[in-house]
Amino acid sequence: MKIPQKLFAQDTAAGRELRLTGLSAATVLFAASAGIEGVLKNSALLACVPGSIAAAVIASRSIPAPVFRSQPLQMGVDVEVLPSEGRGEGLFALRTIEKGSYIFDYLGETLSQEEIDEKYVGVRSDSSSTAYLLELNGPLGLKPTFVDAFDPTLSNAARFMNHGGDASNLYKFKQRYPTRRLSFFAKERIESGEELLWNYGASYWSNREEEIV
């Protein structure tokens, strides 16, 4: 779960935004100059191809590969919340989940950076109330939005899943276009009774060192 840039200075979202913006601008400028050259030389091929290449480059950074999603797992049918040793509570499988199976999306209140700043003004960046924030970048990494799963009435079972590090049995898939969403899939076969775990990422823990201590 990634914490907003304005809450944690270590986040590199602004750097990614700047780099991707520069890449896109350079690609479009190259295409435009090549297109003008094509027009001057009366070459339709030279005029059109660079623009098509530029569009393909931008689209490739915006549109994910197709992902098959079945019905999400249901609480009380497929998964349940149980005590997790050393972690408080966690989410456990009630049946065998095959490798590659769609688990569910990370759901919650969708907020902009400005709304996050207003909602958590004066709140410590390592507060438990910000522990359920997840950042979703838009196409090219621009204008991030955030999913806040702190309110259980607006979230789903994903909020109960613990960090598994290298032992995680789930992997995440970020979709940026046409809608932003984070989906979870089974990285391996998960047996009944096993806890569902995913990797929160190094930045999540480096930004919460004070709370851990």
TrEMBL record:
Keywords: Chromosome, Metal-binding, Methyltransferase, S-adenosyl-L-methionine, Transferase, Zinc. InterPro entries: H3K9_Histone-Lys_N-MTase, SET_dom, SET_dom_sf. This is SET domain-containing protein. It comes from the Eukaryota. GO terms for cellular component: chromosome. It is found in: Chromosome. Its main location: nucleus. GO terms for molecular function: metal ion binding; methyltransferase activity. Transmembrane segments: none annotated. Residues 77-201 form the SET domain.
